[in-house]
Design brief:
Length: about 250
């Protein structure tokens, strides 16, 4: 962590497992806050429950609401309605935001509540032992689907855009500069905006899916990424296991 960002941190070390992508996302979030020059007196981070919910709280030195599972966006909505001058940024996990919290996600997008939601997608419920999430890839092994998940995952950017998000973007944590730039753009865009950060989970996802070597998991995720521009020629089936990366915005 560079010196310029240290004043955004409350802690010297995070509690994330070795190789977890959430720490890289933490870096991108505070770099975006720093580069935007966000005023801490008008800034609120909100998270639910899960490993990713620890990204803002206790790590970021700003006001943080560490709430209950699946309800981060509901709390964030309340805070924004009570104090419209706040910049509200939700940072939480794929399970928290899009599985148990999926209804809040789509309705906040539909109502165009002015907030940015950063979803750390590690494709699994990391903290509770590796259960299947709404983002788990078809065929991926989890604690609850030892034979492989039977259902396709949500495309969270398409889902939030269809529900009304003014801006959405998807990047893996291996592209931290892209993530930072998209978080900045999302925060600066009025209305509901959504960032999906693909964040590898070596402990729960990697271990069950035979990525014993950390590099293999990171390589695997990088290899699955395909730019939006290049994805246009592929069929739904061909794209089913890929991460289409890039920005989705109004023209
Ligand atoms: C109402 C309720 N249901 C279930 C739980 C158990 N629980 C806590 S975190 C979590 C999953 C978190 O997964 P995710 O949001 O993807 O975060 P990750 O740990 O993967 O970063 C679950 C099921 C809970 N705390 N509260
Ligand atoms: Mg998760």
């Amino acid at each position: 962590m560079t010196r310029a960002l240290e004043h955004w941190l409350r802690v010297e070390h995070t509690a994330f497992c070795p190789g977890c992508g959430h720490g890289i996302l933490l870096g991108s979030v505070i770099r975006a806050a720093e580069e935007l020059g966000l005023d801490r007196r008008r800034l609120l981070f909100v998270s639910g429950i899960g490993c990713a919910a620890w990204i803002p709280s206790p790590n970021i030195k700003a006001d943080t609401l560490h709430t209950i599972h699946g309800r981060a966006i509901a709390y964030a909505t309340g805070a924004k309605l009570a104090q419209p001058e706040l910049t509200v940024i939700v940072v939480s996990g794929d399970g928290d935001i899009s599985s148990i919290g999926g209804n809040h996600m789509i309705h906040a997008a539909r109502r165009n509540i002015d907030m940015t939601v950063v979803c750390a997608n590690n494709e699994i419920y990391g903290m509770t032992g590796g259960q299947t999430a709404s983002t788990t890839p078809l065929g991926a092994k989890t604690a609850t689907d030892p034979e492989g998940s039977k259902y396709p995952p949500f495309d969270l950017c398409a889902l939030t855009r269809a529900a009304g998000a003014r801006y959405a973007a998807r990047w893996p944590v291996t592209r931290p500069r892209k993530l930072t730039d998209s978080i900045k753009k999302a925060v600066e865009t009025k209305g509901f905006t959504f960032i999906e950060a693909i964040s590898p989970c070596p402990t729960q996802f990697g271990r069950r899916n035979r990525f014993d070597d950390l590099n293999a998991l990171y390589d695997h995720i990088n290899n699955l990424c395909i730019a939006r521009e290049a994805a246009g020629d592929l069929t739904r089936e061909q794209l089913a296991k890929r991460f289409v990366i890039g920005e989705y915005e109004d023209v």
